[in-house]
Each structure stands twice: as C-alpha cells, then as structure tokens.
Amino acid sequence: MIKSIKLENVPQSFARINPDGKFAQYKHLPYYADIITAHVQGFTKTCIDGKEYSLFTNGSSHTKDGLLIRKPDLDSKQYKKVKMPSGLNHPGGMQAIAQYVFVPCEYKPESSLFVFDVSQEDLPVVKSLHFGHAASSCGITDFEYMGKTRYVIAVNANPTCYLYISEDTETTDITKMDFIEIGQFDLTKFSGKDDDFEGVGLVTDVNNNIFLITLFSRKEYATLADYAMLLGINVKTIEGQDIFQIKVDYYETKHLISHGAVGGEDGVHFRWGNGIYISEKQGLCIAGTARNILSLGSTKLDTNTWPERDKENYS
Q1: What would the 3-class secondary structure string for 187-252 be?
Q2: Which of 53, 105, 148, 290 has the fewest Cβ atoms within 10 Å of its own Cβ atom?
Q3: What is the CATH number of domain 10-311?
Q4: Rounded-to-integer distance, Cα 100 and Cα 173, Å
Q5: Does residue 167 have a pLDDT over 70?
Q6: How far does the chain reach from its first CA to its final CA, in angstroms?
Q7: Is residue 315 pLDDT above 70, yes or no?
C-alpha cells in the first residue's frame, strides 16, 4: 500500500527549515516560446526505487499544452514530458506520494485533479477527480483511522482550501478510491493579510497528526517576498459514524529568501513554480522556481530549495 514518508515532529522540522534557499539550475528542459503568458507552475520531487526525480508543471493561458515534466537530475539531457488531458493548459502546484503525483488543473470556476504514475515511462494518468471550484495547487498525505489507511487531499482555491478524504473501502489501491469533502477554510484568516496563496502541501507525523504548509508571495517594492505558513489539521470524527470534521490551528510563518537567478518579480518566487516534499535525506523541504525556462544556448531553469538545517548538505 502506498504511504507517505512520516516526520518525527513536523513543527520542529518546519522550524529547522533554513530560510536561505539553496540555488540550483536545471538544464535541458523543454522550452516554451511563449514566455509572456507561459510559466512554470509546480516543482516537487519524489523517490522511485531509490532514485530521486524532479517534477515540474508548465502552463500557458493561450495554448493547449500544459505539461508535466519528469527529470532525473540537474544536468541530464534526458527528460520526459506529457500534456495535460483534455487539452487543459493550466496545471498547478503539485505533491507526490511515492510514484503518484497529484496535479490540479483549473478551468475556472471548475477544476480537475489528475494522478500521474511517474514510475512508468509514458507517465500515464491513473486517476482523475473533478471539483466545482478552482484549484491552483494541491497536497496529498495519509493517516491511520480505525485500523485503515485513509488519504487526505488539500486543494487550494485561493484563498479557500478544501480538504477531501478517501472513503471507507476494502481496496488498498489509491487509484481506485473515491474522495469526499470534509471541510474548507479561508487561509487569509491565518496569514492576517489578503495574500495570494500559490502552494499547499500536506505532511503527517509518526503520531498520526496532519499538517498543512501553504506558500505565498507578497509584493514588496520591486520584487516579491516569499513565505511559508504551517497549520495543524485536526481531523475529528463523530463517534460511531464515518463523518469527519476539521479544526485548523496556526503554528508559524517563515520568511524564505531565494538566491541566484534573475532579479525582481521574475526570479525564484512561490508566485511561479512551487512545491513541498519529504525525503529520507532532506526531511521536510520547500521548493520554488523562477518564472520561466529560459533558452540561452541551452535551456535553463533557476530554482531554490529550503531543506531542514541539519540536512542541507544534500542536493
């Protein structure tokens, strides 16, 4: 059964996130000629059979070629790309659980979420969900409930965040599970400002507690300032019934600094590609990209990651 990597103590891991980003430049990615309306939307990582892969989404407001891109390392000339189903062109921020990456696509006022199996060479869609609201990013995790593994999906419809849970079922295959909404909440209630929330991700600790991290950029002078906010998601149940209620608690907001890349608003910011992932080496990690994949001889994309302080020597 597919399960997420659990952390010992999520608030402590979040507190250990180094606010100074680690710069890295990816080369040999597919180039978008329309860099005015097209830009990177999502950036995350996942590990498959001991090998780490980087995943990107890129979208455009005009063309029908929103992409999911899988790349093995920074300098490799190898990558795999697939278009979004149904000609959708606005994939967003994503999160992976093992070989499955959850990618939202919005076509306001509605949206779809596609689950791609990135362990296969053709990156097939193995599940899809439909929502009657927008979806600019999403997160995925699991927790134990009454002896069964249940999955939770967070869908960001800025500033509203929706939570969905997998229904009680005998199947252990996440691609065959149905999901129901268990609650929603306004993210601005916790940031205290009218922020644009670009990214969300979910993390579960070893004690079965669920946490949500949201990423957002604020306009400050001639650039953008980037923040990560940690919330606790307490999933309550009505005794004797498979009915869920949620309570959301605020923990901490961190100001994160990006390095390298182009300056100004087009540099590495959560306004563009962003994501959250957990790895055995890096622990909790936050990721961001510059606005575009640029073509300068060969293609280049500037990125930053923010790992935990005691694990920042890992790439």
Answers
A1: CHHHHCCCCEEEEEEEEEECCCCEEEEEEEEEEECCEEEEEEEEEEEEEEECCCCCCEEEEEEEEE
A2: 148
A3: 2.115.10
A4: 11
A5: yes
A6: 28
A7: no
